[in-house]
What does this fold into?
Amino acid sequence: MPSDRIPSARTSRHTPPARWARRAALATATTLIAAPLVGGSAAAWAADDAPTKFYTSDDEVNNYLSTVAPLNDKAAIQGYPVLGRDTKKITLDDVKNKGYTPDQAVADAQNMLQGFGHTDGAENYGTEPRNDSTDDKDPGWLGNWDAKSICGQSSDVLAQKELKLACGFVGKLDEKYPVMNTTDRMPGGSRTTYVTQASIGQEDKEVSGWKAGAKLTFTVSPENKGGSAEGSFEYNQSTETTKKWTTMSEQRREFAVPSGMAGAAFQAHANAGWYIGYIVQKIDNTGGKAEKTVAIPARVLIQAPSDDVPLTWVGRGTP
It folds into this structure.
C-alpha cells in the first residue's frame, strides 16, 4: 500500500548525481509515494491536504529523518563492500581523527562479523593498518593481490595457497542522511506534477565473499512534457538490515509551494548513512600457523537497518 508522511513526503525514487542536478532541478521538486511494483497501473495523487513542512536547518531535517529511518552508531558488512564506497581517498588519519582506531575496528569485527576470531595454535601478528584506502595490496602474505580481488576468491583457490580469509567492513557513523540532490529554488505559488519510476538490481547478492547491496536506477520527468532525467546510486546493506529497498511502480504527484513563501528548494536525502572505518581482512597464512588482520581505511554508504524506502524528500525554506 502506498504511503506518504507529513511533514515531509517520502519517496523510493532514486536521486540523480550532481551532473544531472540542473536538469533534474524541477523534476525532483515533486514528492512521490512509495509502492511495490506488482503489475498494477500507476496511481495519481493530489497535493497534500495539510501543508508540507519546510525545514530551515540540517539539524531539523536530521531530527525528522531519525524518527523514520534511524541509524545505528556503528555498522558492519559481512564480505567486501563492493557497492557504496566513497570514491575519495580516505586516509588512516581521517579515520583516527573520528575517534576510530584499527584495534577498535578489529574488536568490533570480532563481535559483529563471522570469521574474525583467533585461530587455535596460530602465531598472531596482530593488526596491520594501511595508510589509506588505495593501500590495499599485500606483497608478502597475499602475493600482491588487492583486497577486492582476494576477497572475491573461492575457498578452493585460497586453500591451494594455504590461505584462509575473512573479509568485511566495520565503521562508525560519520554523516547522517546525505543529500543526494538539491533542486533549484521554486517561488511561492508554484505548482507542478511529475512522474517517477525506480528499479533495483543486484539485490542483496553475495558471491565468493563479495557483499553487494543494490543499485537503484530512476527516471523522473514533468507529466506530459517529456525531458526525463535519469540517474542512480549504489549502497551496501549492513549486517543489521532487516528490510530491503524494493522496486517501485510509476508514480505521479502534484506538489505546491505555498503562496506567500519567498521560495523553497527540495532535497533528496538517502535513508542511509556514511560510515567511516576499515575494510578488515583476517588472513590465516602458511597452513594456519600464522594470522594477522589488515585494516584498510574506507567510507561506505549503508542503508538504515529498519527502512525499506531509499530516499526521503524534504522541503527547505529560508530561515
